[in-house]
Design goal:
With 382 residues, the protein is an alpha/beta fold. The longest helix is centred in the C-terminal third of the chain and has 20 residues. The protein is built from 13 helices and 13 strands. 44% of the residues are buried. The C terminus is likely disordered.
Length: 382
Amino acid sequence: MTPTVLHIFSGDLWAGAEVLVYGLLRELSLSQRCRILALSLNEGVLTEKIRRIGINPFVIPESRHSFPSIVWKALQLLRGTQIHVIHSHRCKENLLAATLASLLSSPLLVTTVHGIEGLMDELPPRQRFLAWLDRNTLKHRFARVVAVSQEIAEHLATVLGFPSERICVIHNGIVLPHTAPATAPEHSLRSHEPAPHIGNVGRFVPVKDHALFLEVAARLRQLIPAARFSILGDGPLREALELRSTELGLDDHIRFIPPCNDPSSYYRSLDLYLNTSQHEGIPLSILEAMAHGIPVVAPRVGGLPEILSNGQGGNLIPERLPDAFARRCVAILTDPAVYQTCAREAVTIVRERFTIGQTAMAYASLYESLLQSRSGQRPFPV
């Protein structure tokens, strides 16, 4: 018997969580260890891409339907389908999953926590209530809460009071780039050129702290005058960041590049990947840069020490000081031996520990284990 797993997601963006969902659905479908169904609350890049791999998602646009209407339409679409597991992503989807589970044949509930929310006191009243409701629903209704990093798992247990026995860690993984070598690369040390390119991929939102990226860039311009910078992304803070780059005298040295579905060519253009986030789980952008043999400089926050352990593949900076980031960037870019070592280690780390195949098989094993525990029977055949 092959278990049927329904994934519920928003699908309104094409960012880290959506990239992970796409890769996960693709690998799970190819593995044939479970039958995959998908329910999206929006049309978008994610729904387009999963259709191309043979998964036809149910789409109930949240812009045209209230929550009760979404529940009703989902029940009509799923009528007569035996669902063993519902796997949801993010708050609204978690609440929808729990509601559907109570109205269907009691499928097991699994969620993935992709990051840690800000302080509840900082949220508007409605969002604060939904966050409270989401947390309590996860604590009491979900069979497993999957954290993408050990740091998030510890936060869920010790700060938010989630039952530790229902938390597990499954690291994010990526699809390896076609251009990545099978073994450690001899990455082109473009930093020998007069204008090394330092970049970042991420939405222009407060948690990414691109303002600090700009401060580091301004400091690096003093140390490596010809250095070039770019950020691939978009978001509500774009205008403020462009204004700040002008104030720092970076206009002729930085590009704000619109997001794209496949950033591989962007990664290949980089000499160094600079992350300045206030918090990260296991960011796909860092893994993707590393898979292309790009050394990383990033803050020691969130799940990043679980990737760049012992400084391999780059360096983690404990202080949120522009000078500290800039000095480490210069140390990597100006020492060919250090650069090549970081580049080789980066690819090795991703290939050994952070591929989407490894992530998908961990989820498949989780589904099977939960269903085995419920039934008291042997797991579904692999």
